[in-house]
Structures are given as structure tokens and as C-alpha cells.
Amino acid sequence: MAGTRNTKQKMIILSLLKNAKQPLTAGEIYNKALKIQPNIAKSTIYRNLDAMLSRNEIKQGMLQSGESFYSLADGQNHLHYLICKKCNRMLDFPRCPLGDLESDIATSLDFEITDHTLQIYGYCRKCQRN
């Protein structure tokens, strides 16, 4: 992150992502940021998210609706989530289920894999009951 400015807006976004129980959409980040800095613009949130993505400070995933969600990169080069199609609750896998498969693919195809995303959609226990 050398050479990047730690603006107040960037620090707010990083803090929100760090303290979130699950990844957040840009809209959720914006709404939470408004409570901290009431004059923050939605465009500022998107601009910061794009810049942070390009510097690999955060990771981006996709809800089934097509809306992006964001989480801290925290040194991992991949994401694994179960995503509820009704309430958008996200459950992170406790470990990477693709490690051996990724290694086999890389070896057999002579391909350097840098990251991957696994998102499984369905219904959480609470939504199944409703």
C-alpha cells in the first residue's frame, strides 16, 4: 500500500469492512458511512472501492442479483460463500474446498492460478422455515 493516501473516507470503508460480520454491498457501506460522515458522497464510496480493488486491499464477490459485495483481502486469494437467495445472508466456508483440485488443474494444464471464487446459492435455515 505504499504510495497510497489513507484518506478519512478510505479509513471509514476499511473500518466498516473490518467490523462487519459478513461482506457488505456498496449500498450498505454507503449507508453505514453516512452515519459516520454525513456529507460523504456515494460516488466517493464507489471511487474508493474501485481503487482499493485495484490495489488488492479488498475482494469483490457477486450476489445472484448481480450486485457486488466487498470484504477485506486479508491475505487470501480466494472467496468461498454460501449465499441465501432470499435474505442475502453470507456464510464463509471454514476452509478452502478447492485446494487439491486447484493444484491438480494448475499442474495438469501448466497454468498459474492466482485466485478463485466459489459461491453457492440456496436458502439459509431461517428462510427455509419461512
Oligomer: single chain
Low-confidence stretches: none
* Most strands sheet: 3 strands, antiparallel
Report the total helices.
5
Please give the radius of gyration in angstroms: 17 Å
Terminal CA distance reads 45 Å
| Number of separate strands | 6
Q: Which descriptor suits the 3D outline?
A: flat
What series of H and E elements makes up the topology?
Answer: HEHHEEEEHEH
Task: Report the CATH architecture of the largest domain.
Answer: Orthogonal Bundle
The CATH superfamily name of the largest domain is Winged helix-like DNA-binding domain superfamily/Winged helix DNA-binding domain
Strand order, sheet with most strands: 1-3-2
Task: Estimate nothing, just give the exact number of structural domains.
Answer: 2
Mean pLDDT over the full residue set: 89
The CATH class designation of the largest domain is Mainly Alpha
Helix content: 40-55%
Structural class: alpha+beta
